[in-house]
Amino acid sequence: MFNEINQGNAMGQMKYRYSIVLCITLSMVFASGCPSVPHREFKSYSDAFAETKTITEQLLLEYDLAKQAETKRRSAGMNSVKRSPPYPPVVNLTHIDEGKSIKDPVNARRDALKVVTGFNSVLISLAEGKKPEEVKSATDSFIENLNDFSKLISEDFTIPYAGQVGAIISTIVTKLEEAENRKQFIAALREAEPIIQSILDLFAKDAQDIYKIKARQTDRIWSDHQDKVATLIRQIKTVAKEHSMPAGEMAKKLQNIEKEVRQVYNRAGLYDNTEELLTTGNKPLDELTISQFQQTLVQANSETDKYESIIKAQIAFHELIISYGQLLNKTKSTLTTVRLALDAPVDIRQQANELISFVFAVKRDWEALNDARRSIRSN
Predict the structure, then answer these.
(1) Rg (the chain; Cα; Å)
(2) How far is CA 219 from CA 76, 81, 190, 226, 231, in A?
(3) Which of 30, 157, 234, 242 has the most Cβ atoms closer than 10 angstroms to its Cβ?
(4) How far is the C-alpha of 293 from the C-alpha of 240, rounded, in Å?
């Protein structure tokens, strides 16, 4: 009898141990069905994305100012400069077709940026393991932004899928509203991703347009300073031609003037002009004339300083736009990585660190641009 009791106790203990193992196994299985990425891994990514948003908003202000200046120029009937600028005239980031601008491009793009931000907010919440019902507020805001954005889509708002975006967004919104579980919710977000990517492509195209407009505006400024330099040097040449060829110490002083003229020409991009000061007249070259040449060169150097400042600022702007294009491309790939984290745990630290480095590059280039612009004002 005691043997039967001991056997019964042994069987009970064994069942108890098996039940514990089974519970642990089931908990692991069900937990794996709702993957999440530790919150700390998203901190750097979230910070970098916020910086990307801020940078895009800054460029939208640049876009607005550039558009206003271009509209004012056209209304005034001013002609573009035909010379080749000493910096790249355009910057190519994407291959989206050109399209007409909308009446209020800046506000429209702000609405588009809200869609990207909302999508990212929902993505992060889900990737951190939150349930769809726990991110209802963020989802409702994202749906509202999607609906507002769909109203902007027309032939005047250039974006991929423009002819079918309204229907696509309507389908996405319906799926988000009807989603009953995480899997359905993720499927709806997956369908929204191409829209988000196309908005980022739109920002890249805008950046190209901003640069092109700024380049046209800068063409008129640097060419004006260049013309002034050429005019001042012509004045020196005209006066020199009235004088006879000097000798001795005066000849050395004239040679020094010619060297300075060469330096001014080179700095102002007038490489093909000759620095030679012909002296074919009858007047003897004197100290007063040399002094006049030097004073005129001071004016020419002042115009050259302005010319160089303008060129430096435009080149800095070119570098900024290139960096911004790289940042947008990285943002696109990082968003995809985060979306994939909804289906299985993914280590996004490398992507986040790379995104941060691109943000830093843009901020560095923006500071260089600000320095260049301050130099223009100081001249």
Answers:
(1) 33
(2) 17, 6, 45, 11, 18
(3) 157
(4) 9
Alpha-helix runs per DSSP H in the chain: 2-32, 40-76, 105-127, 136-152, 165-178, 182-241, 248-267, 287-340, 349-378
DSSP state of 85: P
Helices 248-267 and 182-241 sit at what angle, rounded to 10 degrees?
160
Tell the residue number behind the tokens 């004088």, with chain if given: 243
Q: How far apart are CA 86 and CA 379, in angstroms?
A: 20
Reading the block at residue 30, the tokens are 């069900």
Distances (CA, A) of 255 to 22, 248, 293: 97, 11, 12
Per-residue pLDDT tens digits of the chain, which is 379 residues long: 434 444 444 445 544 444 433 333 333 333 334 444 445 556 778 888 999 999 999 999 998 888 888 877 777 665 555 566 778 878 877 544 444 444 577 788 888 899 999 999 888 888 777 887 888 888 889 888 888 887 776 544 555 555 566 677 888 888 888 887 888 888 888 888 888 888 898 899 889 999 999 999 999 999 999 999 999 999 999 999 999 999 999 999 999 999 999 999 999 999 988 989 999 999 999 999 999 999 999 999 999 999 999 999 999 999 999 999 999 999 999 888 888 877 776 677 888 889 999 999 999 999 999 999 999 988 7
3-state DSSP assignment of residue 243: strand
Please spell the DSSP secondary structure of 101-152, one letter per residue.
PPSSHHHHHHHHHHHHHHHHHHHHHHHTT--GGGGHHHHHHHHHHHHHHHHH
- Distance, CA of 357 to CA of 351 (rounded, Å): 10
Residue 285 and residue 243 in contact, taking contact as beta carbons nearer than 8 Å: yes
Residues 200 and 113: their CA atoms lie apart, in Å, by: 8
CB-based contacts of 75, cutoff 8 Å, min separation 6: none
| CA separation, residue 171 to residues 138, 167, 179, 300, 321 (Å) | 19, 6, 12, 65, 35
Contact yes or no for 159/298 (Cβ under 8 A): no
